[in-house]
Design brief:
Length: 425
């Protein structure tokens, strides 16, 4: 099995005709997921994904649900068929909604209808032809941002703007704004030696010009019920994990106007000790953006898929993923205790102890023993107690942990003990 790792989901632009067709023929869960998407949307999304035509699939209101449906289908193979569990998830723009869906914060039907509407609002902006985007390769994001600022200031006293909309890497940036301003900034950047590629869009996504669409999308989001996350999801806007479900609606609405900062996501994952990631969705664009120190497997790559499947068969009675799952649960539990000393003693210190244990096991290749699992569960008990979790929440999370790893019981945790005020050991 993979050790502590992240899962990633790509954004719009990764769609292609034939996406998911071969997988749906090999995995019943993929076929069922796409059928669920057909029903939720009231359309034959599978026909569009499998047969095209490409211009229709590329429409923003079709591409977004298609990419999300395939990402969720791949996640279900990864988790249900292969038994993997991520330490953390992230997604690029649209992919963030896919990540939240896989984490359990949004139901698949709600997510599909949500991104369909998101796509319609963005498609309306495309039809309006109010702006465009361009990819800039070469200069650092700071240099590109400076040119955008200078260009906007020079355009008729700010009546036309251009901004950095995506930072994909230190050498690849995307700019967005009014047509004239994007064209002017592109010429200035080209003069500085940048390779500028106009994108085949007619709207300035991830820019202030998308505010009307963001306002309407916020209204749509206000009608969605968000559930608790089974593992942390890192925002591609802030590079930090969501603190709670109350943040989701506001962040997703901002996703239409604010800058996507993928390097910030990678920096946070590095701070977590993440050494590997699995990309789920059509293609492998995020794999290409990853630093060489990070090992990335793309589900849509046949060799990578074969490796993931083979690794999933190599299991022990207890896996390091069980310990990682305990760490993920500890992170997701809502904190209701703001006493700094108690938090350090009851949450931060035991969490560090389990994290250090996981790091050591990964480095030495030692087998995970029952004593290691008991330490992780004792950490959870301390976190639950210190953060003020209810007995019902504790029971629910423990039952899910047991079921996810197909364990008849958790070591040292009897049914009677779990029902008594959430006591673990």
């Amino acid at each position: 099995m993979l050790n502590k790792h992240a899962i990633w989901f790509p954004g719009q632009g990764s769609q292609r005709v034939g996406m998911g067709k071969a997988l749906s023929e090999r995995y019943a869960v993929v076929k069922a997921t796409i059928e669920e998407a057909n029903e939720a949307l009231g359309m034959r999304l599978d026909n569009l994904m499998f047969e095209g035509p490409m211009p229709e699939l590329t429409r923003t209101d079709n591409a977004q649900p298609a990419i999300l449906a395939l990402g969720v289908a791949m996640y279900r193979v990864y988790s249900r068929e292969w038994g993997y569990l991520p330490a953390v998830a992230a997604g690029h723009s649209l992919g963030e909604i896919t990540a939240l869906t896989c984490a359990g914060a949004i139901t698949l039907p709600d997510a599909l209808r949500l991104v369909r509407r998101r796509g319609e609002l963005m498609q309306r902006a495309v039809a309006a032809g109010i702006g465009t985007m361009a990819a800039v390769n070469g200069p650092s994001p700071d240099v590109v941002a400076k040119v955008c600022l200078e260009t906007s200031a020079a355009c008729a006293e700010g009546s036309r703007i251009v901004v950095v909309s995506n930072i994909n890497s230190e050498r690849q940036t995307v700019i967005s704004g009014h047509n004239e301003a994007v064209h002017e900034a592109s010429e200035r950047l080209s003069a500085h030696g940048a390779a500028v590629i106009p994108l085949q869009v007619s709207a300035p996504f991830h820019s202030p010009l998308m505010v009307p669409a963001a306002v309407e999308f916020a209204e749509v989001l206000s009608c969605v019920s968000f559930g608790e996350m089974n593992f942390p999801v890192v925002s591609s806007l802030t590079g930090l994990p969501y603190g709670n479900t109350a943040e989701i609606a506001g962040m997703l609405a901002r996703g239409l106007t604010d800058l996507v900062n993928w390097p910030a996501v990678l920096t946070f994952l590095k701070s977590m000790g993440i050494a590997a990631a699995v990309e789920m969705g059509p293609g492998y664009v995020l794999k290409r953006l990853a630093p060489t120190a990070l090992r990335v497997f793309a589900f849509d790559d046949k060799e990578d898929e074969a490796h993931l499947f083979a690794a999933s068969r190599q299991t022990d009675a207890y896996s390091i993923e069980l310990l990682n799952r305990c760490l993920a649960i500890a992170t997701c539990v809502r904190n209701r205790n703001w006493n700094t000393a108690e938090y350090e003693q009851g949450v931060a210190s035991p969490y560090r102890g389990v994290q250090q244990l996981v790091d050591r096991l990964r480095e030495t290749g030692e087998q995970v023993e029952e004593a290691h699992v008991r330490q992780a569960l004792a950490m959870l008990e301390s976190v639950f107690r210190t953060k003020g979790s209810s007995a019902e929440e504790q029971e629910r999370r423990l039952a899910r942990l047991r079921d996810e790893f197909d364990l008849p019981s958790l070591p040292g945790v009897s049914p009677a003990e779990r029902s008594y005020a959430g006591s673990l050991l």
